[in-house]
């Protein structure tokens, strides 16, 4: 094989992880003061920033207010320097429009939309550095930002991708692994009820292998949840402490 | 679960793009030794008490070997010896080897897979304590060397409380000294091998690598090399200069072909040029060896020369003069001059191990010998050996290591002794090697994917497969055949039609895509039949046992079942994976007798008669369509069952039953071809036989005309008809001779991937079939395995995988198969030639 | 610019404070600058980057050096291109194409200032004259928008350029003149840019009869006009623009420029000091702190 060996015979991936390991996750809630909620997450070298504005009155030409539920408005953008090769525009291209739509679907499925009729919630995510699993990082960051904004959700939404190489599923694929043309499955999941809010697949994968790959992805989501939940709890207790002090 | 610890970013610049990749460092990478008490290892690779097979006077203590990259690259021949065990192979080393030489990488991977060799791969670049970062101004080479020493130090520390020592083997004196200065044990391979007690012959296998020093000196002083030897050859350009030159059109890329008549002359077939370009003189050939891909510089027309008319053989009289007879007298174009060039650089070497014989040393008792390859186009190779006495008169294998500028001949090393010249096994070996037929025993890694015996049919198998054990199936093959891959049956149906079945061994059930077994079979491509030996494509357990549809045993098959009218019209075809139990394995002769013997009326006899009747109709139809019946001059040897020596030579007899089996195989192949083409329009593995250009037929048209026959060659049908007419009753052999010659005029049939060609080129000319493939011999042809997999996907019996859908990948496989098939054919013919000659020689009256 | 709406009383309060008492709502004097938070090397896949937070204004600048054909008018000079992205993170108003106009204005202004040959050694960015030069793409993302955006952007751009590492390339020349480029595989081989001549931007905002620097969003809402001056470390002015809908007298412009020069000089100095200490960082925590 002339291409890159994504998984060595010794069982290590190119970056030194084992097949079932996530990348290093670092995150923070409440990075901006102006927004109603914000969060920042790093999954390896993929870095995403999310802000949430709202619920507020319906602004602009983005459709009419809905009488029974809130409008979720999402925008996905990528900093022009985020990719290895510089992008010309941060958003508005097909890919980002698609991503925006995916995000919107994901969060319409999880936010308690019936609580805020006739209003709008804006979720903006921006990729600052892209190294694979961009969508996942965005979903995770947005979830944290929504929590930070205090908007009720059915559950966390955690996203994780997985790939399939040499009959072995890989968790949380990096850009290098994504770009080798193998199948990549992206799953956004509500970890408690194990419901899948979004499922997306690139490239071909035989249906027989789907189950394993899906399983690995959902395991990744749950691992993700553990990390996110711990961070939220810590953030909240710190907030509580600072409130006590003041 | 996040088990990654600290991590370091690694910046890599590919082109001018800054690429940042994560690099995790871990603390759960173990040393791999059974002697270690610190690491929790389930399956240690390195032995607890590494006592070497051969006593080593340098390292008489228990030790593990740690290899430097250059050792793995150049000395695999030594590493493969059983005396070398308990070896630590670093990830860094493995990576560099893969980058520099894929063949070496493949061999080292085989060694790692071989459990008895105890090669352990240590992932040093992801280990927290052995990871290092490149320093400013450090060359990649120095960096790798430092990484190796870092791991060496780690291992040394790790085993400091045990009696085990770690020994670094390197070819680089520099690295050895650095390691020693750091207090480690380090030897060069030469030192280490020399100190092995009782294995002096191993010394011969050491590759003669140019030490860096020598190279440097040779480049510094262009006139003389160390030892006052003359630099004989011009320098090669660097790959960088070559690429730039080719881009500008200053140089051309081509394949070097040595001249058969004159060792001083050669040709280069340059891409995009119809005629081969001529090269005169060894200096202009500049160390190119037959088959190398080279860069050439064309001469101006005034410097063109003509190939000489003299036949010259390299006697190698003067060691340090290249072209003593270079006559530069002619200025201006010579009579008959052709485009001429010189070689400026080598793009890719085509060096492989060569078979041949050793020549006596110039000085009696000397160790320096010349080696003469069986292939005349290969230059003599200089080797050094202590065991001339043993090797003289034997066929041996030698590898080329390098060809320095000051050496008249390439330098090589002895690899293996095949045996005495003239010995049957030896000669077979030579034949296989020279035709590039992979024939080594299957590696451990390959064998590990074989099913475990005793093999039984499970309940699960019975649910997914159609049970055809009740059907009266039999096989018809040549006598002595042990790899039976097809069987047949015929069953009259109530509606007057008949069910005809062709059952093919289900090899793809045992060979799963992508594993070592599959890769090996794919690389071998075909089983090679020599007169007295068969080189299997798949291990014996499969070819002669589990996949062989022997009589009376239950086997898995892939069945094609037709419902046919008595006129042999196909009403209906279906494919299924099945379990069958062949009632009998007949030879062609036995089957013929059974058919002819009117007293036999059992199900098999009726079946065979039915099949024969159908086959005749099918054949007629095919011939009407323009299929050619061509003859080949195949001969058979009857073997002495004890010694396997050929006793007599006979021409192959064609019986009706031969063509009966053939007819149904063709039918099955066509049916399958249609089916997989439907399912895989872009990537079906098919076989085509291009229409031969009319010019090919010129010679036989002439021959036929001399006897007054006019051959029509504008279509297959016309050709077949006119061949039938060309009969001279008084010379019965004439027609057959014509047919044999027609065979020679044909183009080669080829495998291809359906997406690579327009549909009208799928045609199989010889069989007059618009579409064709190979399905019926998966035991001995890899193409059939691919086709089986495709058909299995088509009938949803098996899972699909990405390679099957990749037309480029399939084409790549097909290209290899085409090459292997051609080589197998040549090898088979060469074997027949060899035995014919031996047979004639021994039957000569003394 | 992202504006906020203020009541008349609040405006009067701010204006009075500035004009009469030299005192602003956050306690500063008219010409005092707030502290800002600066960090270099936050985005590891860029050639250089910097994040700057000035109170509620936050910008992120990434510089990518890319090789490509030069401008035909200047075949032996590299160049720099600016692109400003108003992230929707800063305000929902910037969603979609909401921030484009403003972005174009700012990038044009930066382009104008950096066009000056003295700013950077553009000649050194040339790899092969007429064929291949380095172009620096300085991409600015506005993450939070809370007043005095231009100053913040200019500071961050200068810091990011200081932080920029351009891979070392060597040019091979062939006998017949064709050239090929080789990039060193050693990550330690890079060149940095000389940023000592780069100016910062100082926005001086008129509020009532007085003028202030480093205005907050509220103060900007009280102002009709401002001037933006590019000031280098010597205090010389490299460029100037007047913005806003109000008009200014020549006299007041002169006064404002005097303030801008002084502030600019100080700002440059403190920035240069910081950069010489921390400007070469290649990995920092970014948003995690």
UniProtKB/TrEMBL annotation, chain A:
GO cellular component, one term: nucleoplasm
A Pfam family hit: RNase_PH_C
UniProtKB keywords: Acetylation, Cytoplasm, Nucleus, RNA-binding, rRNA processing
Domain Exoribonuclease phosphorolytic: 21-152, 155-220
GO MF annotations in UniProt: RNA binding
InterPro entries noted in UniProt: ExoRNase_PH_dom1 (IPR001247), ExoRNase_PH_dom2 (IPR015847), ExoRNase_PH_dom2_sf (IPR036345), PNPase/RNase_PH_dom_sf (IPR027408), Ribosomal_Su5_D2-typ_SF (IPR020568), RNase_PH (IPR050080)
CDD domains the record matches: RNase_PH_RRP41 (cd11370)
The keyword rRNA processing appears for this protein: yes
Location in the cell: Cytoplasm; Nucleus, Nucleolus; Nucleus, Nucleoplasm
GO BP annotations, alphabetical order: nuclear mRNA surveillance; poly(A)-dependent snoRNA 3'-end processing; rRNA catabolic process; rRNA processing; U4 snRNA 3'-end processing
Family affiliation: Belongs to the RNase PH family.
PANTHER family with a match to the protein in the record: EXOSOME COMPLEX COMPONENT (PTHR11953), EXOSOME COMPLEX COMPONENT RRP41 (PTHR11953:SF0)
Oligomeric and partner information: Component of the RNA exosome core complex (Exo-9), composed of EXOSC1, EXOSC2, EXOSC3, EXOSC4, EXOSC5, EXOSC6, EXOSC7, EXOSC8 and EXOSC9; within the complex interacts with EXOSC2, EXOSC7 and EXOSC9. The catalytically inactive RNA exosome core complex (Exo-9) associates with the catalytic subunit EXOSC10/RRP6. Exo-9 may associate with DIS3 to form the nucleolar exosome complex, or DIS3L to form the cytoplasmic exosome complex.
Protein name in UniProt: Exosome complex component RRP41
Record organism: Strongylocentrotus purpuratus
Lineage: Eukaryota, Metazoa, Echinodermata, Eleutherozoa, Echinozoa
UniProtKB/TrEMBL annotation, chain B:
Family annotation (Gene3D superfamilies): 2.40.50.690, 2.40.50.700, 5'-nuclease
Signal peptide: none
Subcellular location, record wording: Nucleus
All copies of domain RNB, residue ranges: 465-797
Name of the protein in question: Exosome complex exonuclease RRP44
CDD domains per UniProt: PIN_Rrp44-like
A biological process from GO: rRNA processing
PIN domain ranges (all copies): 63-177
InterPro entries xref list: Dis3_CSD2, NA-bd_OB-fold, PIN-like_dom_sf, PIN_dom, RNase_II/R, RNase_II/R_CS, RNR_Ribonuclease, Rrp44_CSD1
Family: Belongs to the RNR ribonuclease family.
Record keywords: Exonuclease, Exosome, Hydrolase, Magnesium, Nuclease, Nucleus, RNA-binding, rRNA processing
Cross-referenced SMART domains: PINc (SM00670), RNB (SM00955)
GO molecular function: 3'-5'-RNA exonuclease activity; endonuclease activity; RNA binding
Cofactor(s) required for function per UniProt: Mg(2+)
GO cellular component terms, semicolon-separated: cytoplasmic exosome (RNase complex); nuclear exosome (RNase complex)
One Pfam assignment: Rrp44_CSD1
TrEMBL record, chain C:
MF (Gene Ontology): mRNA 3'-UTR AU-rich region binding
One GO cellular component term: nuclear exosome (RNase complex)
Sorted UniProt keywords: Cytoplasm, Exosome
Pfam (any one): RNase_PH
Domain of life: Eukaryota
Any single biological process term in GO: U1 snRNA 3'-end processing
Localisation: Cytoplasm; Nucleus, Nucleolus
InterPro entries: ExoRNase_PH_dom1 (IPR001247), ExoRNase_PH_dom2 (IPR015847), ExoRNase_PH_dom2_sf (IPR036345), Exosome_comp_Rrp42_subfam (IPR050590), PNPase/RNase_PH_dom_sf (IPR027408), Ribosomal_Su5_D2-typ_SF (IPR020568)
SUPFAM superfamilies registered for this protein in UniProt: Ribonuclease PH domain 2-like, Ribosomal protein S5 domain 2-like
Primary location group: cytoplasm
Domain Exoribonuclease phosphorolytic per the UniProt entry, residue ranges: 33-167, 198-262
Membership in a protein family: Belongs to the RNase PH family.
Protein name, as recorded: Ribosomal RNA-processing protein 42
